[in-house]
Amino acid sequence: MNKLKVLVVDDEADFCELVVKRLIAGKMNAEGIQDGPKALEILKHKDIDVVVLDVKMPGLGGIEILRWIKANTPGVEVIMLTGDQSVEAGIKGMQLGAFDYVIKPVPMNELLDKIRQAYEKRLGQ
After folding, report:
1. What count of other Cβ atoms lies within 10 Å of the Cβ of residue 125?
2. Cα–Cα distance measured from residue 123 to residue 119, given in angstroms and rounded to the nearest whole number
3. Whether pTM exceeds 0.90
4. What is the chain's Cα-based Rg?
5. Domains of the chain (ranges, CATH numbers)
6. Are 57 and 36 in contact (CB under 8 A)?
């Protein structure tokens, strides 16, 4: 069975690195990036199953990246991350096709469960 491939896109380097380490420890292929345009380059050239995507990033933000993903790689599932305690950004992401959203700080086990659920959806289970 192929390993679940996850791309974590978050401008907070420490958070991004922590999530990637936990995913790798959970037997997933994971890569982290802190830059929206670089994330798009990865998505253009690599087969990714699930993207964990921060809403607010400098330059190219999460909503714009989500729009690109849904237009160009519609099978990829996206979990939006928001540090904003209001749910507006998460709801906007869901309206645009995100699988789900979580509010940071998110318990790591909850995030891992969401990633697995998104992967199951991608596989059609």
Report:
1. 7
2. 6
3. yes
4. 13
5. 5-123 (3.40.50.2300)
6. yes
Q: What is the residue-level pLDDT of the chain in tens, covering all 125 positions? A: 468 999 999 999 999 999 999 999 989 999 999 999 999 999 999 999 999 999 988 889 899 999 999 999 989 999 999 877 667 777 788 899 999 999 888 899 999 999 999 999 999 85
Alpha-carbon distances of 50 from 20, 83, 89, 91, rounded to whole Å: 13, 20, 19, 18
The β-bridge relationship of strands 77-82 and 50-54 is parallel
- Burial class, 8, CB count within 10 angstroms (exposed 0-12 / middle 13-18 / buried 19+): buried
Residue 110 tokens read as: 């909850």
Query: Are 28 and 4 in contact, with CB atoms under 8 Å apart?
Result: yes
Q: Can you point out the beta strands (E) in the chain?
A: 5-9, 29-33, 50-54, 77-82, 100-103
